[in-house]
Amino acid sequence: MSETQTFRRIATRIELEHSPFPVDPGYQPVLRADNSPEAWSGGMGVVFHARDVQLGRDVAVKRMRPDSLGDAAFQERFLLEARAQALLKHQNIVTVYAAKQDAHGPWLVLEWVDGQSLQELYADDFGSRPSLEDAVDWVLQIAEALIYVHDHQLIHRDVKPGNILLRTSDRRPLLTDFGLVADRRLSRMMSGVSVSGISMGSVDFMAPEQGRDASKVTPLADQWSLGATLAWLITGNTMRTLRERDLPVTLREVVFKATEKHPQDRFRDLKEFRDALKSAVSGPAVPAPPASPGRPAPPQEVASAPGDPIRASGIDGQCWKCSLVNSDGRKFCKGCGEATREACLNVACRQPIGVWERFCPECGEDQPRQREVRLRRVQESGDLIRRHLQQQRYDLALAELQQLDSQCTTPRLRLLLAPIEGLETAAQQLQQAVQQILRRAIEQATACDYAEALQTLQKVPDVFWPEDAVTWQQSVVELQALRDALQPLVGRGRLDGLKKALQRLQQLQPGHWSAAEHIARCVEVLVERARQLHASGQLDEALEQLETIPVTDRTDSCRQYSAALQEELNALERRGTELAAVGNYDEALELVRNLSEQRRPRSWSAWRAAAKKVDQLREQLNAELPKARLENCLRILEEL
């Protein structure tokens, strides 16, 4: 099923007559059993299943409806979809290959996806639902695609199950239909398409603010739609009918926060939504280290340390550590050397008091209660630190650890840190592992292996990515576009364009590209074209075709064929000279008739003048002339 087979109605004969398949030799429609094209009807046009003849791959051809051609807003939306989607090269986004125009209006060539939309697969509210694991996995992949879209300053504005295709071969979800996309770089989003105060989108999966005014939405609208899509996949209910008990406990907070009515109450962006969803499904415990090499392993759960540093004995002079009772004047226990005075835990007081005191004599603060508060704070921080480490956010983990360390300055308070014992070491180890991955990615990028560098960076959160990663992504997109262009340029004999593309590839990846092979293949295409011209009697055009090839790019076969054609040209000149020498001027002129003036022999004008003179004399012979003039004409003809 194609990019737009989310539209489930087969195109009618009348629709196909008014929106015919484009007349383009590069694309052929795929036919049904009754020899009609495989085509579907949608809101903005008709979509055909087609075959790219040159590249040998299936594509989807999307044509705009004729009744929409007079609507400037529809045309702009159609072309904006092409421009926006053409910018995006992501494994979870349907690719736009080309945008074209003919007498029936604009049409697009898109990636063909063999599968169905999530809406089609799970449309029955009382039917089967996908597994929780699949639903979350698909939403996480689409979240990555939307993060990529938002990074390109675009907003999709129509995220819904019907616009997510599930490819049959690998069950990969692909985001499609950018017909309502908004460009955040424009002063007016979708100028002429989004009108202030107008609602655009699908009601059940449209953020509340988008329902009021589609021209003023932010990327948080896509977050709402994706959260609503997740809820629908799990329960079959839209947000209007969803009940809290319908959702798994672990996902309730994530889904309802992503679909809050007011944008400011949602996650800050889709990255935070993605991370929260990952944490929700993975649980509080940190999993075992992954088997894949090179990826930093998260730390294991650490048990709390034994002991009770919280209680206060209330016995004057009693050491909290060894329980020995000291005289009031001692500052350190005579049994274990531990300090017998600590600062009050009330930050506004901080007066030194005895470790046995429950209440501070200066401010009355309950010291054991304050220690319990600190212990709960440590436990909560421990959970937070483990989540940070699980997400490989060692920077946040270390910052939290440092804050706790600054609050627990005495030996007694430091015992409260037992629940997080070992986490600082784990954070430091993770930091080293992440830095090692970053160094590896930089090495790959330095070697111009940008795709491999980006693949390496996928092992760590993008917050750690170097600034150059944006340039790497742009290089990967440009490299792919250039690689895709090579074969068409060769096939069409576009030697100048091919050399420019190869030059740019060499700039992006020095030493990775050999231009000679591609240029030689392109030259052979031009030589074959010259052979066809020659075979049809167009010697002059064949020579012109060969002369477009620079001398430095010519292959052996090109040089040999050029020499053969030149020899044929020389033979024509010699034969013409021979014919003219015996007075057969018309035959001589006929030999070089199809040649351009620059290729005709130098004596060509003389032949033509002589032939003209012969014709004039013949006319005079046919006329009644005096005998003297007749004899003179015969003498001249004899000489000619």
Number of strands: 14
Biggest sheet layout: 7 strands, antiparallel
Helix amount: 40-55%
Low-confidence stretches: 1-7, 185-201, 284-307
Radius of gyration: 40 Å
Hey, roughly how much beta strand do the residues contain? 5-15%
Termini separation comes to 78 Å
Q: How many alpha or pi helices?
A: 21
Can you characterise this structure?
- Strand 6 and strand 7 (105-111) form a beta hairpin.
- The protein has 21 helices and 14 strands.
- With 640 residues, it is α+β, with helices and mostly antiparallel strands.
- Strands 1, 2, 3, 4, 5, 6 and 7 form a seven-stranded antiparallel β-sheet that branches. Strands 8-10-11 form a three-stranded antiparallel β-sheet.
Briefly say what this structure is.
This protein has 640 residues and is of the alpha+beta class. The chain has helices at residues 13-18, 72-87, 118-121, 132-151, 208-212, 220-235, 249-258, 270-282, 367-390, 394-407, 411-414, 423-446, 450-457, 469-491, 495-508, 515-535, 539-547, 556-581, 585-591, 604-622, 627-639, and strands at 9-10, 27-29, 39-41, 45-52, 57-64, 96-102, 105-111, 115-117, 154-155, 164-167, 173-175, 182-183, 341-343, 352-354. Mean pLDDT is 82; it is low at 1-7, 185-201 and 284-307.
